[in-house]
Design brief:
The protein has about 300 residues and is of the alpha/beta class. It has a single domain, classed as Rossmann fold (3-Layer(aba) Sandwich), CATH 3.40.50. About 30% of the residues lie in helices and about 20% in strands. It has 10 helices and 11 strands. An 8-stranded mixed beta sheet has the order 1-2-4-3-5-6-10-11. The chain has a 3-stranded antiparallel beta sheet with strand order 7-9-8. Strand 8 and strand 9 form a beta hairpin. Helix 2 runs parallel beside helix 10 and helix 3 packs across helix 4.
């Protein structure tokens, strides 16, 4: 783990590397189930298009902007806010089931007219991407997993009516996320923190539905077939697409025992590493871009 001084130096270097002119991309929306999904679209049709998916604590499509811009030189690249996050709407039926989340990926491809994009997921979305590849093998060409936690399956029941996360100041929000073992960009970049928050009477609230972990929609007509948490050990054997895993060397997600198990049971996985903490798009964007370009160069 980086010490505080090293962390700040790394953050400053990362922000300098990301200090680009306003990226040329389109901000658009589409309907999926009971929500509207906000997405950012980069590039022009060319090679196989790429979908980039963010994690949960706290990320949204904003964190992918500069990486997506640099990857979109020879293809279309899209990053979107998951339902209940960022600029996407909150599900009125509190439907944040895996079925709904995978449905949003399928709805995105249908909306864009894409048949088999490359699907990449960071953090929580790495497990979601594995589940998508397992259940819809004919709807993606390759699978990319970026620093995701592949621990044992542990169901939870957070339910609905959870209190919103509200901070008295922007700085308080940054401090809260700065206490995580692997602080995300929101803890280091005030402009990013401001973008992730909305002003309310009591202070600043995260742009995230407090019930984003709910697996059981309140609408009885909506049927789901799996719980929110993802058992990747059951899903991985069913994945047919080529798999590329990127691990942050200073992150606590892909632990040595998990890496050993993956190497033993899934030798077909192609591995890469980045000298980075968990938020690789922020701390090591150039390494991430180079790794993805290498994996995607022939498709």
């Amino acid at each position: 783990m980086l010490d505080r001084r090293s962390l700040l130096q790394t953050s400053a270097a990362s922000m300098a590397a990301l200090a680009l002119p306003a990226p040329a991309h389109a901000d658009e929306r589409f309907a999926s189930g009971d929500v509207t999904i906000f997405y950012r679209r980069f590039g022009k049709p060319g090679k196989t298009p790429l979908v980039l998916m963010h994690g949960a604590n706290y990320f949204d499509s904003f964190d992918w902007i500069n990486v997506a811009q640099k990857l979109a030189t020879d293809r279309e690249v899209v990053c979107f806010d998951m339902r209940g996050f960022g600029e996407s709407s909150w599900s009125p039926s509190k439907n944040y089931s895996v079925d709904a989340l995978m449905g949003d990926i399928r709805a995105l491809s249908a909306h864009l007219g894409w048949r088999k994009p490359i699907v990449a997921g960071h953090s929580f979305s790495g497990r979601l991407a594995v589940s998508f590849a397992s259940n819809f093998p004919d709807e993606l060409s390759r699978l990319i997993v970026i620093d995701s936690a592949f621990g044992e399956y542990e169901p939870s029941a957070k339910g609905i009516n959870n209190p919103p996360v509200i901070f008295p100041t922007v700085e308080a929000a940054m401090e809260r996320f700065g206490k995580l073992a692997n602080p995300p960009r929101i803890s280091q970049d005030r402009a990013r923190a401001e973008q992730a928050l909305t002003k309310v009477a009591a202070g600043y609230q995260l742009k995230r539905d407090p019930d984003y972990s709910n697996a059981n929609p309140t609408d009885p007509s909506v049927k789901v077939r799996r719980v929110r948490e993802l058992d990747v050990w059951e899903e991985l054997p069913k994945v047919k697409a080529p798999m590329y895993f990127l691990r942050g060397l200073k992150s606590n997600r892909f632990t040595p025992p998990i890496v050993a198990r993956l190497n033993k049971d899934f030798p077909q996985i192609v591995w890469a590493t980045a000298d980075s903490m968990h938020d690789i798009p922020f701390y090591a964007p150039d390494e991430l871009i180079a790794a993805l370009r290498s994996f995607m160069q022939d498709v």
